[in-house]
Design goal:
Elements: H1 9-16, E1 23-26, H2 33-41, E2 46-51, H3 54-57, E3 66-70, H4 76-82, E4 88-94, H5 99-103, H6 129-135, H7 138-148, H8 154-167, H9 173-180, H10 189-204, H11 207-221, E5 222-232, H12 235-247, E6 266-268, H13 278-283, E7 291-297
Parallel strand pairs: 1-2, 1-4, 2-3, 4-5
Antiparallel strand pairs: 5-7, 6-7
Helix pairs in contact: 1-2, 7-8, 7-10, 11-12
Length: 298
Amino acid sequence: MQYHKSVLLKESVDALEVSNGGVFVDVTFGGGGHSREILRRAEECSLYSFDQDEDAIENDFDDDRLTLIHSNFSDLENSLKLYRVVEVDGVLADLGVSSHQFDAEERGFSIRFDGPLDMRMGKGFEKTAADIIDEYSWEELAGMLRSYSDLKGAGRIARRIKDVHDSNPLKRTGDLVEVIRKLAPPNKHNKFLAQVFQALRIEVNNEMKVLKEMLQQTINVLKPGGRLVVISYHSIEDRLVKNFMRSGDFSGEEKKDFFGNSLSPFKVITRKPIVPTEVEIESNNRARSAKLRVAKKV
Protein backbone atom coordinates (compact mmCIF):
# COMPACT_ATOMS: atom_id res chain seq x y z
CA MET A 1 0.00 0.00 0.00
CA GLN A 2 1.28 3.47 -0.89
CA TYR A 3 2.17 5.44 2.27
CA HIS A 4 0.85 8.74 0.96
CA LYS A 5 0.08 10.31 -2.42
CA SER A 6 1.50 13.82 -2.50
CA VAL A 7 -1.02 16.59 -3.14
CA LEU A 8 -0.36 19.43 -5.61
CA LEU A 9 3.09 17.92 -6.16
CA LYS A 10 4.05 19.73 -9.36
CA GLU A 11 2.44 23.02 -8.39
CA SER A 12 4.07 23.19 -4.96
CA VAL A 13 7.58 22.28 -6.12
CA ASP A 14 7.24 24.64 -9.09
CA ALA A 15 6.41 27.40 -6.60
CA LEU A 16 9.52 26.56 -4.57
CA GLU A 17 11.71 27.46 -7.60
CA VAL A 18 14.27 24.73 -6.96
CA SER A 19 17.68 25.43 -8.47
CA ASN A 20 21.21 24.05 -8.33
CA GLY A 21 23.17 25.21 -5.30
CA GLY A 22 20.02 25.90 -3.32
CA VAL A 23 19.18 24.88 0.23
CA PHE A 24 15.58 23.81 0.81
CA VAL A 25 13.38 22.54 3.63
CA ASP A 26 10.42 20.16 3.53
CA VAL A 27 8.89 20.45 6.99
CA THR A 28 6.41 17.59 6.39
CA PHE A 29 8.36 14.65 4.97
CA GLY A 30 5.57 12.02 5.26
CA GLY A 31 5.99 9.51 2.46
CA GLY A 32 8.81 11.54 0.93
CA GLY A 33 6.95 12.54 -2.23
CA HIS A 34 7.66 16.26 -2.13
CA SER A 35 11.23 15.67 -0.95
CA ARG A 36 11.95 13.31 -3.84
CA GLU A 37 10.53 15.78 -6.33
CA ILE A 38 12.64 18.63 -4.93
CA LEU A 39 15.78 16.51 -5.30
CA ARG A 40 14.75 15.47 -8.81
CA ARG A 41 14.68 19.11 -9.87
CA ALA A 42 18.31 19.92 -8.98
CA GLU A 43 21.36 17.67 -9.04
CA GLU A 44 23.30 19.95 -6.71
CA CYS A 45 21.21 21.09 -3.77
CA SER A 46 20.71 20.40 -0.08
CA LEU A 47 17.39 19.35 1.45
CA TYR A 48 16.50 19.22 5.13
CA SER A 49 13.23 17.37 5.78
CA PHE A 50 11.31 17.14 9.05
CA ASP A 51 8.78 14.72 10.47
CA GLN A 52 7.71 13.94 14.03
CA ASP A 53 5.99 10.68 13.08
CA GLU A 54 8.07 7.55 13.69
CA ASP A 55 6.32 5.78 10.80
CA ALA A 56 7.31 8.55 8.37
CA ILE A 57 10.96 8.39 9.41
CA GLU A 58 11.00 4.81 8.12
CA ASN A 59 10.46 6.23 4.62
CA ASP A 60 13.97 7.71 4.63
CA PHE A 61 15.87 7.04 1.41
CA ASP A 62 19.55 6.97 0.50
CA ASP A 63 20.55 10.32 -0.95
CA ASP A 64 23.54 12.34 0.24
CA ARG A 65 21.64 15.57 -0.45
CA LEU A 66 18.89 14.69 2.04
CA THR A 67 19.05 15.15 5.80
CA LEU A 68 15.94 13.76 7.52
CA ILE A 69 15.29 15.28 10.95
CA HIS A 70 13.02 13.43 13.39
CA SER A 71 11.40 16.45 14.98
CA ASN A 72 8.30 18.62 15.03
CA PHE A 73 8.55 21.47 12.55
CA SER A 74 8.17 23.96 15.40
CA ASP A 75 11.89 23.18 15.99
CA LEU A 76 12.74 24.45 12.50
CA GLU A 77 15.25 27.19 13.28
CA ASN A 78 17.15 25.47 16.09
CA SER A 79 17.31 22.16 14.22
CA LEU A 80 18.79 23.83 11.15
CA LYS A 81 21.38 25.60 13.31
CA LEU A 82 22.58 22.19 14.54
CA TYR A 83 23.58 21.54 10.91
CA ARG A 84 25.11 25.04 10.62
CA VAL A 85 22.32 26.13 8.30
CA VAL A 86 21.38 29.77 8.88
CA GLU A 87 19.40 30.66 5.76
CA VAL A 88 17.56 28.63 3.12
CA ASP A 89 16.11 29.28 -0.32
CA GLY A 90 12.72 27.76 0.28
CA VAL A 91 10.43 26.13 2.83
CA LEU A 92 7.59 23.78 1.84
CA ALA A 93 4.84 22.59 4.18
CA ASP A 94 2.11 20.08 3.32
CA LEU A 95 -0.11 20.34 6.40
CA GLY A 96 -2.69 17.88 7.66
CA VAL A 97 -2.78 14.12 8.07
CA SER A 98 -1.12 11.67 5.70
CA SER A 99 -3.03 8.89 3.98
CA HIS A 100 -1.05 6.38 6.03
CA GLN A 101 -2.12 7.99 9.30
CA PHE A 102 -5.77 7.93 8.22
CA ASP A 103 -5.50 4.31 7.07
CA ALA A 104 -3.70 2.98 10.15
CA GLU A 105 -6.53 1.80 12.45
CA GLU A 106 -4.34 1.84 15.54
CA ARG A 107 -3.62 5.59 15.14
CA GLY A 108 -7.27 6.55 15.71
CA PHE A 109 -7.46 9.34 13.10
CA SER A 110 -10.27 7.96 10.95
CA ILE A 111 -14.02 7.63 11.43
CA ARG A 112 -13.88 4.55 9.19
CA PHE A 113 -12.20 2.23 11.68
CA ASP A 114 -12.67 1.21 15.29
CA GLY A 115 -9.31 1.93 16.87
CA PRO A 116 -7.90 3.50 20.03
CA LEU A 117 -8.83 7.17 20.59
CA ASP A 118 -5.22 8.22 20.12
CA MET A 119 -4.70 10.75 17.24
CA ARG A 120 -1.12 11.62 18.20
CA MET A 121 1.08 12.47 15.22
CA GLY A 122 4.16 11.57 17.23
CA LYS A 123 4.87 9.86 20.53
CA GLY A 124 6.25 13.13 21.90
CA PHE A 125 2.70 14.23 22.64
CA GLU A 126 1.62 12.94 26.04
CA LYS A 127 -2.15 13.24 25.83
CA THR A 128 -4.30 11.16 23.51
CA ALA A 129 -7.78 12.06 22.31
CA ALA A 130 -9.15 9.75 25.03
CA ASP A 131 -7.19 11.74 27.64
CA ILE A 132 -8.64 15.01 26.32
CA ILE A 133 -12.20 13.69 26.59
CA ASP A 134 -11.53 12.34 30.07
CA GLU A 135 -9.79 15.41 31.51
CA TYR A 136 -11.66 18.30 29.89
CA SER A 137 -14.91 19.68 31.22
CA TRP A 138 -17.82 19.89 28.80
CA GLU A 139 -17.21 23.64 28.60
CA GLU A 140 -13.59 23.07 27.56
CA LEU A 141 -14.62 20.49 24.99
CA ALA A 142 -17.21 22.93 23.63
CA GLY A 143 -14.57 25.64 23.34
CA MET A 144 -12.31 23.23 21.45
CA LEU A 145 -15.10 22.35 19.01
CA ARG A 146 -15.91 26.03 18.42
CA SER A 147 -12.26 26.87 17.79
CA TYR A 148 -11.32 23.96 15.56
CA SER A 149 -14.43 23.09 13.58
CA ASP A 150 -17.30 24.83 11.82
CA LEU A 151 -19.89 22.85 13.77
CA LYS A 152 -23.00 24.41 15.20
CA GLY A 153 -24.23 23.33 18.62
CA ALA A 154 -20.76 22.75 20.09
CA GLY A 155 -22.15 22.88 23.63
CA ARG A 156 -24.77 20.23 22.91
CA ILE A 157 -22.17 17.94 21.34
CA ALA A 158 -19.73 18.42 24.21
CA ARG A 159 -22.41 17.76 26.85
CA ARG A 160 -23.42 14.55 25.11
CA ILE A 161 -19.82 13.31 24.95
CA LYS A 162 -19.16 14.05 28.64
CA ASP A 163 -22.50 12.66 29.84
CA VAL A 164 -21.82 9.30 28.21
CA HIS A 165 -18.11 9.28 29.08
CA ASP A 166 -18.75 9.91 32.78
CA SER A 167 -20.83 6.73 33.03
CA ASN A 168 -19.06 4.64 30.38
CA PRO A 169 -15.55 5.96 29.49
CA LEU A 170 -14.88 6.42 25.77
CA LYS A 171 -11.68 4.63 24.76
CA ARG A 172 -12.16 3.84 21.07
CA THR A 173 -13.08 5.75 17.93
CA GLY A 174 -16.11 3.52 17.47
CA ASP A 175 -17.36 4.51 20.92
CA LEU A 176 -17.16 8.20 20.05
CA VAL A 177 -18.82 7.72 16.68
CA GLU A 178 -21.68 5.84 18.30
CA VAL A 179 -22.22 8.59 20.89
CA ILE A 180 -22.33 11.55 18.51
CA ARG A 181 -23.75 9.97 15.35
CA LYS A 182 -27.35 10.88 16.23
CA LEU A 183 -26.43 14.55 16.63
CA ALA A 184 -25.37 14.88 12.99
CA PRO A 185 -27.53 16.93 10.57
CA PRO A 186 -29.48 14.83 8.04
CA ASN A 187 -27.36 13.57 5.13
CA LYS A 188 -24.18 15.04 6.64
CA HIS A 189 -23.12 12.28 9.00
CA ASN A 190 -19.61 11.74 7.65
CA LYS A 191 -18.80 15.45 7.44
CA PHE A 192 -20.09 16.00 10.98
CA LEU A 193 -18.08 13.11 12.39
CA ALA A 194 -14.96 14.19 10.51
CA GLN A 195 -15.23 17.70 11.96
CA VAL A 196 -15.44 16.40 15.53
CA PHE A 197 -12.42 14.17 14.90
CA GLN A 198 -10.58 17.10 13.30
CA ALA A 199 -11.10 19.29 16.36
CA LEU A 200 -9.82 16.56 18.69
CA ARG A 201 -6.80 15.89 16.47
CA ILE A 202 -5.86 19.58 16.36
CA GLU A 203 -6.12 19.80 20.15
CA VAL A 204 -4.10 16.62 20.78
CA ASN A 205 -1.25 17.76 18.53
CA ASN A 206 -1.33 21.50 19.34
CA GLU A 207 -1.52 21.98 15.58
CA MET A 208 -2.34 25.68 15.49
CA LYS A 209 0.34 26.55 18.06
CA VAL A 210 3.12 24.65 16.30
CA LEU A 211 2.01 25.94 12.89
CA LYS A 212 2.26 29.52 14.15
CA GLU A 213 5.69 28.83 15.65
CA MET A 214 6.98 27.31 12.40
CA LEU A 215 5.64 30.15 10.25
CA GLN A 216 7.17 32.81 12.51
CA GLN A 217 10.56 31.09 12.25
CA THR A 218 10.50 31.25 8.45
CA ILE A 219 11.03 35.02 8.71
CA ASN A 220 14.51 34.33 10.12
CA VAL A 221 15.23 31.16 8.18
CA LEU A 222 14.43 32.30 4.63
CA LYS A 223 16.90 34.31 2.57
CA PRO A 224 15.66 37.47 0.86
CA GLY A 225 13.86 36.15 -2.22
CA GLY A 226 13.30 32.77 -0.57
CA ARG A 227 9.95 31.06 -1.08
CA LEU A 228 7.39 29.94 1.52
CA VAL A 229 5.04 27.32 0.05
CA VAL A 230 2.18 25.98 2.18
CA ILE A 231 -0.61 23.49 1.42
CA SER A 232 -3.49 23.58 3.92
CA TYR A 233 -6.64 21.46 4.19
CA HIS A 234 -9.15 23.35 6.31
CA SER A 235 -10.24 26.94 6.76
CA ILE A 236 -8.55 27.42 10.15
CA GLU A 237 -5.10 26.54 8.80
CA ASP A 238 -5.65 28.42 5.57
CA ARG A 239 -6.69 31.60 7.37
CA LEU A 240 -3.54 31.53 9.52
CA VAL A 241 -1.32 31.01 6.47
CA LYS A 242 -3.09 33.69 4.43
CA ASN A 243 -2.84 36.26 7.24
CA PHE A 244 0.79 35.46 7.95
CA MET A 245 1.85 35.81 4.34
CA ARG A 246 -0.01 39.09 4.07
CA SER A 247 1.22 40.78 7.24
CA GLY A 248 4.05 38.72 8.75
CA ASP A 249 1.87 38.09 11.80
CA PHE A 250 -1.58 36.54 12.27
CA SER A 251 -3.67 39.69 12.22
CA GLY A 252 -3.72 39.79 8.44
CA GLU A 253 -3.50 43.59 8.62
CA GLU A 254 -0.76 44.79 6.32
CA LYS A 255 1.25 47.56 7.99
CA LYS A 256 2.74 50.37 5.92
CA ASP A 257 5.33 53.06 6.54
CA PHE A 258 4.80 56.81 6.25
CA PHE A 259 5.20 56.62 2.47
CA GLY A 260 2.71 53.78 2.04
CA ASN A 261 5.29 51.04 1.55
CA SER A 262 4.43 47.64 2.97
CA LEU A 263 6.29 46.60 6.12
CA SER A 264 5.42 42.93 5.68
CA PRO A 265 8.43 40.60 5.47
CA PHE A 266 6.72 38.80 2.58
CA LYS A 267 5.36 39.52 -0.86
CA VAL A 268 2.31 37.37 -1.60
CA ILE A 269 2.70 35.46 -4.88
CA THR A 270 -0.72 33.77 -4.90
CA ARG A 271 -3.50 36.34 -4.47
CA LYS A 272 -5.91 33.42 -4.68
CA PRO A 273 -4.92 29.92 -3.54
CA ILE A 274 -4.01 27.27 -6.08
CA VAL A 275 -6.37 24.28 -5.84
CA PRO A 276 -6.18 20.77 -7.30
CA THR A 277 -7.59 20.03 -10.73
CA GLU A 278 -10.61 17.79 -11.14
CA VAL A 279 -8.27 15.16 -12.57
CA GLU A 280 -6.14 15.17 -9.40
CA ILE A 281 -9.19 15.02 -7.14
CA GLU A 282 -10.54 12.04 -9.10
CA SER A 283 -7.25 10.17 -8.63
CA ASN A 284 -6.77 11.28 -5.00
CA ASN A 285 -9.95 12.23 -3.14
CA ARG A 286 -7.97 13.54 -0.17
CA ALA A 287 -6.77 16.42 -2.35
CA ARG A 288 -10.28 17.88 -2.62
CA SER A 289 -9.92 20.46 0.16
CA ALA A 290 -6.28 21.42 -0.47
CA LYS A 291 -5.24 25.05 -0.94
CA LEU A 292 -1.74 26.11 -1.92
CA ARG A 293 -0.42 29.56 -0.99
CA VAL A 294 2.99 31.02 -1.88
CA ALA A 295 4.93 34.03 -0.62
CA LYS A 296 8.42 35.42 -1.17
CA LYS A 297 10.64 36.86 1.56
CA VAL A 298 11.46 40.48 0.75
